[in-house]
Amino acid sequence: MKRKIKITYLIEDTIDIDSFLGNQSISSSNIEHLYQSKGIYVNGQLVLTNQLLLASDLLEIALYEEKQTFKAIQHPIEIIYEDDYLLIVNKPANLNVMSNRRYYENNLSSYVLNYLQKQDTFFAVHLVNRLDRITQGLVLIAKHGILHHMLEKTKIIKKYQLRIKGHLENKKGTIAVPILKSDEGQKRMVAPHGKMAITEYEVIQENSDSSDIIATLMTGKTHQLRVTFASLGHPIIGDSLYGSTSVQDLCLCSYYLEFIHPITKQKMIFKIQPSF
Questions:
Q1: 183 and 234, same domain (yes or no)
Q2: Residue 33: which domain range?
Q3: One-character DSSP codes across 26-85
Q4: Residue 12 in 3-state DSSP?
Q5: 143 located within any domain
Q6: Across residues 205-232, what is the average pLDDT?
Q7: Any catalytic annotation for residue 16?
Q8: Which of these is catalytic: 57, 132, 212, 239?
Q9: Strand ranges across the sheet with 58-62
Q10: How deeply is 93 buried, as exposed, middle or buried, from its count of CB atoms within 10 A (0-12, 13-18, 19+)?
Q11: How confident is the model at residue 184 (pLDDT cuts 50, 70, 90)?
Q12: I need a surface site. Which of 50, 142, 179, 262 has the fewest CB within 10 A?
């Protein structure tokens, strides 16, 4: 029998179960599923309907099994952090994060699913942040839909390191450009009626014909950094879709993640060194 992962709460004030779990960013549908899967316990006793919790009660929820619709594939992954609830991996460049028709087997989700299935529990793959196929860096994965929903309510600070062509006049600042999907496949463009994409940036090093930059996304638009710097005439090195003539891999890395752990409530900070 597979081991169920439990989340434990010590109750401080009188409140009913449904209200307490709702306050933990657990949706009403997930709460109902927890009752149906016999996953709610108070002081060690199974609970099947909403009831009042008292101060010092111990509430436990056992995460139920989820079905995955994609294939598990054996392949090494670089794990940066792992606990019973979360997994953070370093995705290499030129690897799709999700399984689809084109990348049915060659994708990060399939690799992670294979890794999780080897553990004797009901783990699943829920991508909290996603990266373009050609972008490298940190990907945060929740091991259950309930945990994913919690993280969607959590502020996650994402920083990128990138290398652009040429030098910027202003070495630090905020860039705001309206971005719109173009008619050329997945490509985006700057257009007056697009949605505003806001990026804070700082130049950390200038090379002879390029600049290394730290960028923080204030919004989360598709291809935001790639479009933003290309619109300034400084495409990211290796980004042929947006004007770079370099044949090397895209010099863009999600190198920094910061968030509050949904269960332990501790501040979590992770950094990696970009390969470029």
A1: yes
A2: 6-62
A3: --HHHHHHHHHTT-EEETTEE--S--EE-TT-EEEEEPPP----S-------EEEEE-SS
A4: coil
A5: yes
A6: 96
A7: no
A8: 132
A9: 6-10, 58-62, 40-42, 45-46
A10: buried
A11: confident
A12: 50
